[in-house]
Amino acid sequence: MKSRKAVSTVAMTLIAIVVIAAIAGGGYYYYQSSQSMTASTTASTSAGPLRAIKIGLVASLTGTASDVGTDMQRASILAVEEINGAGGVYVEEYKSKLMLELVAGDDKTNPQEGVTAVTRMILEDNVDILVGGFSSPVTYASEVPAIENKVPFMITGASSSVVTRRTDMDTSYVFHYCSITDDYSEVIVRFFADVMKPMVAPDRNFRLAILYQDSPYGKGCYDSSDKFIKELNLPIDIVAGETFKLGDMDFHTQLTKIKAAKPDAVYHAGLVADSATAFKQGLSDVGMNTVFIGVECNDDPNFYELVGQWGDYQLIESKFAPFAGHYMDAVDSYIEAYKKRWDIMPGMMGADTYDAIYMIKAAIENAGTLDKAKVRDAIEKIELPQMLIPMKNGVIEFDENHEISPICFIEQMRFDESTNTLKLSIVYPDTMKQQEFVLPPNYESGEA
Domain of 252? Predict the structure, then answer.
């Protein structure tokens, strides 16, 4: 890295500024935490005045997924604070380190609000790059202004592959730093075939029911499960498939139908609040003595608080396990820093977003410029050691679809009556297993 050239006498002060702006049609805020140049308007290089690197965070700060969006926001702020505290991002074009400035747009867990927020960040706030995006139908809409304006967008929360593989638009500026529904579903169906089937259905096919959100995300989970069952020739039959709308919280009708199908397990593809509600309604109200599994966006303190004792012996698919005890040093360090900053445990989607902020730093330094096309090229070529999210080859890199290859795993919850909290352990695959999977004491297997 080249040394910084003197540009003027600049007073450096440590600041932390949050400016909240209430704007009709979509809220947003600015966040800057840095060693900030109080005379930056006069400091300059051959590339022009020094300025901040603006990262636009797309997150559900209100609406159905506000719990996840808040985690993404906190993780982003933490990463920005760390990077700025270490001196910022060296940009060769400026022969200097520049500070990061976080500009967040609230998509309100709504597609049109997402479009409004992203459009504002691009056209009014002039962000250099975008990160975040949660809920596939929301992100499918909110990425359009980024695509049209050729602003790099690193998606860290929408799991449907359509956001990078859509054919109606050029997605070359869109990158997917999170699991897709193929990743979720492959590890889930493999777990059922490898671990549960020998325990509950040794002489017949395993009976699986899927309750999924009626969206690209939910449909992706169902289709991916069906695909891998067939491609891997797994002894699993999907005996029920029921849908629900984004925001629904009453699943009694669907769960009653699922119970009648006599499944060996239920795969719920939803968000934090609806997943916790479905688990409780199925196990308590409908009287299902079975195993439920949720996907990784539920690996979040809000989910564990909501599901409470009804999470006992139930399952979560994830790739970041803050409640499972030690399994990676980097995760331990992140949990400690996050708790110190926010006084709460982190969740899954924030971990994705935290990693992405550091990837953006690396891409800009590799590009040596803030030119969006060159930053896009640098992201496409990026190769970094894995951070919080374990990778199959230990390296973060994007494939031809701008997707990654994360290692996903299965966790089992156990309710600790002494602390009134849930404890988690990784139970699959064997390479990461912390303890053996245990069937619930009242478990009832399905019947052919």
Answer: 182-318+408-428
